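Worked example
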Amino acid sequence: MSRLHSQLLGPDGAPVVVLLHSLATSSELWSPQLAVWRRSLRLLLIDLPGHGASAALPGGGSMAGYAAAVAAELDRHGVEQAALLGLSLGSMVAQAFALAYPARCRALVLAHGAAATNAALRDVWQERIAAFREGGYASVAPATIARWFTPRFVRNAPLTMAWIQDLITATSAQGYVDAIQAIQALDHSDRLAAISCPTLVIAGEHDAALPPAAGQAIATAIPHARFALLEGAAHLGNVEQPTAFTELAGAFLHSVLLPGVHAPPGAQA
């Protein structure tokens, strides 16, 4: 299996949290959270196959294959157990990891994701593949950005939109198509009850790509999972509402991984 591009940030010996990004971005997507989380958590940032600096997987993409590649990165860094935080595609991969490697998963944060892709959505994704193959990212990027953020945020954050555009267009064509095909085949719904680790599910109030009902369904299916609605956010809530997302997911991870530990203001990691 090809190695993925990954890096570890944060204090030696701190609990490890794997960060898994969305379709057509890279681990750079987590930039708004890094300064806060790396003070007390050991962050393993991974570029998923065909994204960022990672090559696509031989033979195409699947959630099981992506999960195995993540497990291989944990092995490479000598990490036996970790929490996983995934957003959109990353949420789907995190589910697959928790199902395949339950003993290695300490906690889950599943943001802006779904557990299955129905027939209608599979057709929508197929249309996007066709548009991409015909016109490249120029034909899909504007609509993608419109789904990912609220109109007001798009208008008011042109520099951020330029950054997101760069992340999209830096994704390899093979990685983009492989990931969409993996999403088309997604079906974890009947298996989520097997997940036993502490889980937080986050949905965006204005997410048109994967509405809050999709997140609520995941939270209902996973025993004892918590559900949180991120107000004012569409699909990439960690970018549109960075402070709220950082605090929400960070507080959950600290409660599970570092219970009773409260870093005083100004403390050095």
The chain has eleven helices and seven strands. The beta strands are 6-9, 16-20, 42-46, 82-87, 105-111, 199-204, 226-230.
